[in-house]
Model the fold of this input.
Amino acid sequence: MSTQSSNSVISVTGSRRNLPDAPLLAAARGHEPKHRPIWFMRQAGRSLPEYRKVRAGIGMLDACFTPELVCEVTMQPVRRHGVDAAILFSDIVVPLKAAGIDLDIVAGTGPVVAEPVRTAADVAAFPTLRAEQLAPVARAVSLLVEELGSTPLIGFAGAPFTLASYLVEGGPSRNHERTKALMYSDPQTWHALLGRIADSTITFLTAQIDAGVDAVQLFDSWAGALSLADYREFVLPHSARVLDAVGSAGVPRIHFGVGTGELLGAMGEAGADVVGVDWRVSLESAAKRVGPGKALQGNLDPAVLFAGPTAVAREVAKVLADGEAARRAGAIGHIVNLGHGVLPDTDPEVLTHVVELVHNS
Done:
């Protein structure tokens, strides 16, 4: 089955900032950075008191479509921690919301879709995302590019499988049973759905790139629920199309999933320049699975940050050493990160200390 759809070829243009000394971009491209770069997934969020203050009384999706607020929240961890990259404050369901899909992010639950997508007719009615619907996101990126100076800005999007899971289930799911049922019982409708989602994802990433982001990350949060065979058949072609569509922009592309140790080889084939690794697999093993020519990102367990300064220092040192082993095993670079996002109750001072440990290594 072809996974191409009507607007699969999208021109990626826009002027790029020239940041030759940015350690994150150097590591992603296989150059030698002046120090090991580090940033944290979910670094702009609930672990920061300043974030909770500015977000008080403002819904998550409302915040994501308010450029000045997006700029402020995105800048907060850069100011506080001195990380080597900012990541755009947004959410993976933003392109779905922008296109007109009726959904909301419910506190304590996550994204909830009013009318789940489960039939061929539902897929046929799936709205097409237009670049102008993302004007607030593009404006936020423009504000950030002016504010960040020499610090790179990472844009991001949810991968087609993860977004499909929310759309089919109607919200978060532990077992993804409705998602897998559609995948197995009606492959034609499944591929049509992921093709439509891939179109939206390409539009979303392209808008961010055109506005000035310096790298992008494709999150496949739930891909770890799949076997390798199912990933290859039902998911890989669509993620690969997304990554290929933005490849001409010349910005590093990062691909990350949770619990994807068995999928790392296939994820490496999807076309990203950097493959993210969670804490369940060593970076050295990941390098061997992904294959040569890719940089790796990761992979400190977020729970380690609660273990006290001695344990934190020990585990950071292990990740740094493992990153060196990964390079000997074929990885072209190492970007330090957590193996998933910052947990909400994390002490911000611990995050700052981790940055200092990495930079001083």
Remarks:
- Confidence is low (pLDDT under 50) at residues 1-14.
